[in-house]
């Protein structure tokens, strides 16, 4: 069952393993946007917002902008910046792939934010549920790094992979992988 | 005959095939097979999303993934092909420029330090073109491997001590993959280069990614190592997108080169599930074959 969420998100009841979709507004933010948010503040009010780790392909049309492809990018690149972003801008949701570190998880727990894992590379699935490009900021950073504002309907499916109670699917998988790695290394006489 | 336009058009078409419409069948088959064997529901849902995305790309003729990569070309020149070699480089670059504008592709190529993006996917040494001579052949063959950053960023080179031997190689492949696989958009392919010098090891690791899924190294001992590493990696439980499950890699391809008696280089180059590549040949009379 897919939980259909709307922005601004109410995240306290979400837990890891939940499958969700989002209807509302999401903001793309990658490395350069994160840096500039911290240096200059935000051109829009991000309180309660969902940010999307994504560098889309977008093209200009007569009516404005059309999104060509928009899947998630590797979230761990933003690890060192995200806790401060969550705190300062009161971000409620982060969409990305691969998960984030312990400090980001702590910030999520403290300020109320969830991490939503989207299938990496599935850029056209995402496009299907983007209804409109509402705005773009900081286009001088280049197409992938600019902050794109998307209106989305049933954007997903996504898996809640880190929640506000400090639960983290990636940490669970990591523990399992470490246990199995030791076992396999013993079996192959590599230990 | 002037091959400039032929090469340019072929380059454009190869990028379109690889990135949008002609997803490699061996990879799609392997993904479909993986769903049947997978018992983790989250990984299953990721594999379903991937297959749906491949279908959408075919239907809409748009890029499968927004990371349309940087473009690595492997050009093989038949020794019997009469062609002005000097034009190949520019013709390929023109094809990349056109594909970037028309398909369109994401402009990924930036200066490494200033991070300035010319918006063209052409820059210093990019696209990168490897050249090779094919003795006695009468055609020019071009393969494009668009390489996304998610998987490429997890690459590594380790200069082992020869005393660490085969077990050291296995241990390194396993431990590195255990740590990094979740970020390469799995299920993907592990390309391993063993031997040569530092640069050669990484180059053959990348070439290993071009081999079809299920293919094995001609040397039986290395083929066995490929099987052993694939089984071991898929037993780790990393799963699609690192969310847990039995489908972590579709294959492990290992290539070897002779090395210095005091060296044991091991390079790992990962490929994401979107294992996009396309190959075409140009014959002397201008005929094209895919």
Using brief descriptors, characterize the structure shown:
heterodimer; A: 191 residues; alpha/beta; fumarase; 5-stranded mixed β-barrel; 28% helix; B: alpha+beta; 60s Ribosomal Protein L30, Chain: A; 22% strand
Could you describe the 3D structure shown?
The complex is a heterodimer of chains A (191) and B (290). Helices cover 28% and strands 32% of the residues of chain A. In chain A, a hairpin with a 2-residue loop joins strand 4 and strand 5. Chain A contains five helices and nine strands, in the order E-E-H-E-E-E-H-E-H-E-H-E-E-H. The longest helix of chain A is centred in the C-terminal third of the chain and has 19 residues, at 169-187. In chain A, strands 2-3-6-7-9 form a five-stranded mixed β-barrel. Chain A has a two-stranded antiparallel sheet with strand order 4-5. Chain A has 191 residues and is α/β, with parallel strands linked by helices. Chain A has a single domain (2-166), classed as Alpha-Beta Barrel (fumarase). Chain B has 290 residues and is an alpha+beta fold. Chain B folds into two domains: 3-18 and 64-148 and 276-289, 60s Ribosomal Protein L30, Chain: A; 150-271, no CATH class. In chain B, 39% of the residues lie in helices and 22% in strands. Chain B is built from eight helices and nine strands. Chain B has helices at 4-21, 25-37, 41-60, 86-102, 149-152, 165-180, 198-208, 220-234, and strands at 70-78, 128-134, 139-147, 156-160, 188-195, 249-257, 264-271, 278-283, 288-289. Chain B has a five-stranded mixed beta sheet. Chain B has a four-stranded mixed beta sheet with strand order 4-7-5-6. The mean pLDDT of chain B is 96. At the A-B interface, helix 4, strand 9 and helix 5 of A face helix 3 and helix 6 of B.
- The number of helices of chain A is 5
Tally of individual domains of chain B: 2
Indicate the radius of gyration of chain A in whole angstroms.
17 Å
**How many beta-strand segments of chain B?**
9
Would you give the CATH topology of chain A?
fumarase
Strand order of the largest sheet of chain A: 2-3-6-7-9
> Which CATH top level class of chain A fits?
Alpha Beta
Low-confidence stretches of chain A: none
Quaternary structure state of the chains depicted: heterodimer
Largest sheet of chain B: 5 strands, mixed
Terminal-residue CA separation of chain B:
20 Å
């Amino acid at each position: 069952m897919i939980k259909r969420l709307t922005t601004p998100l109410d995240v306290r009841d979400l837990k890891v393993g939940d499958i969700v979709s989002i209807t509302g507004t999401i903001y793309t933010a990658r490395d350069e946007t994160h840096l500039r948010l911290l240096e200059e503040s935000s051109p829009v009010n991000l309180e309660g917002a969902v940010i999307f780790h994504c560098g889309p392909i977008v093209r200009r049309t007569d009516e404005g902008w059309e999104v060509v492809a928009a899947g998630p990018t590797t979230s761990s690149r933003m690890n060192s910046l995200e806790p401060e972003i969550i705190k300062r801008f009161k971000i409620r949701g982060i969409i990305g792939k691969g998960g984030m570190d312990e400090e980001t998880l702590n910030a999520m727990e403290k300020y109320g934010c969830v991490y939503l894992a989207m299938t990496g590379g599935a850029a056209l699935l995402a496009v299907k549920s983007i209804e409109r490009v509402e705005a773009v900021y900081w286009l001088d950073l280049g197409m992938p790094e600019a902050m794109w504002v998307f209106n989305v309907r049933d954007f997903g499916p996504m898996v809640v992979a880190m929640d506000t109670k400090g639960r983290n699917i990636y940490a669970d998988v990591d523990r399992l992988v470490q246990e199995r790695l030791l076992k396999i290394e013993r079996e192959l006489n590599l230990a | 005959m002037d091959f400039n336009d032929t090469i340019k058009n072929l380059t454009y078409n190869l990028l379109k095939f690889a990135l949008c419409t002609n997803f490699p069948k061996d990879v799609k088959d392997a993904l479909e097979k993986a769903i049947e064997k997978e018992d983790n529901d989250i990984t299953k849902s990721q594999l379903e999303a991937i297959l749906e995305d491949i279908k959408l790309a075919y239907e809409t003729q748009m890029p499968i993934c927004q990371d349309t990569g940087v473009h690595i070309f492997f050009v093989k020149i038949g020794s019997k092909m009469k062609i002005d070699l000097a034009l190949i480089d520019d013709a390929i670059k023109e094809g990349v420029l056109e594909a970037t504008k028309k398909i369109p592709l994401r402009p990924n190529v930036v200066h490494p330090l200033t991070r300035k993006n010319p918006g063209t996917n052409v820059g210093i040494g990019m696209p990168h073109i490897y050249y090779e001579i094919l003795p006695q052949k009468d055609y020019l063959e071009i393969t494009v491997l668009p390489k996304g950053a998610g998987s490429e960023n997890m690459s590594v080179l380790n200069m082992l001590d020869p005393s660490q031997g085969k077990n050291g190689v296995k241990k390194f492949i396993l431990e590195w993959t255990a740590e990094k696989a979740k970020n390469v958009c799995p299920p993907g392919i592990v390309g391993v280069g063993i031997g040569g010098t530092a640069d050669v090891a990484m180059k053959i690791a990348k070439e290993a990614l071009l081999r079809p899924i299920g293919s094995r190294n001609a040397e039986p001992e290395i083929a066995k190592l490929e099987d052993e590493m694939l089984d071991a990696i898929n037993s780790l439980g990393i799963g699609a997108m690192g969310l847990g499950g039995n489908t972590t890699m579709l294959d492990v391809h290992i290539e070897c080169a002779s090395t210095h008696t005091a060296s044991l280089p091991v390079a790992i180059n990962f490929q994401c599930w979107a294992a996009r590549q396309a190959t075409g040949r140009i014959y002397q009379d201008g005929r094209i074959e895919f």
